[in-house]
Design a protein that fits this description.
The protein has about 120 residues and is mostly helical. The longest helix has 21 residues. A hairpin with a 6-residue loop joins strand 1 and strand 2. The protein is built from 5 helices and 3 strands; from the N terminus they run H-H-H-H-E-E-E-H.
């Protein structure tokens, strides 16, 4: 279907298709929860421009996997405190008026537990 189209026409189709990606307000909204997402997308862009499409995307995918594994292997571990009125438990840093038990260490690992989180979960104290 695109065999008989001139290169300039194909370039124009590509430019029109990609113009929607350059909305600054969308980039700000996308970057607000995680700045690493913007950094990874810039690495992908630089990789594609420098190495070509497939090698550049492979570099970006590899870097994304490293970031995901790093985040998963460092869970959020929090010390727990107990509400004297109701007996419920919560994060000690959020509830400074609650009592932290001194005879036992009460901690919570946020998220799923699996082998990559074992070292970080074990070294709470």
């Amino acid at each position: 279907m695109f065999k008989n189209l001139p290169q300039a026409t194909l370039g124009a189709i590509f430019v029109v298709a990609v113009m929607g990606f350059f909305r600054v307000d969308e980039l700000r909204r996308f970057a607000s929860p995680r700045t690493s997402a913007i950094l990874l997308s810039l690495v992908a862009l630089a990789g594609v421009l420098a190495l070509g499409v497939l090698p550049g995307l492979l570099v970006a995918v590899g870097l994304s996997l490293i970031v995901v594994i790093q985040r998963l292997s460092r869970p959020s571990v929090s010390l727990l405190a107990r509400d004297p009125a109701t007996g419920s438990w919560g994060r000690a840093e959020r509830h400074s008026e609650w009592e932290v038990p001194h005879e036992v260490l009460a901690a919570r690992v946020d998220g799923l537990l699996f082998y990559a989180k074992a070292r970080a979960s074990r070294s709470v104290s």
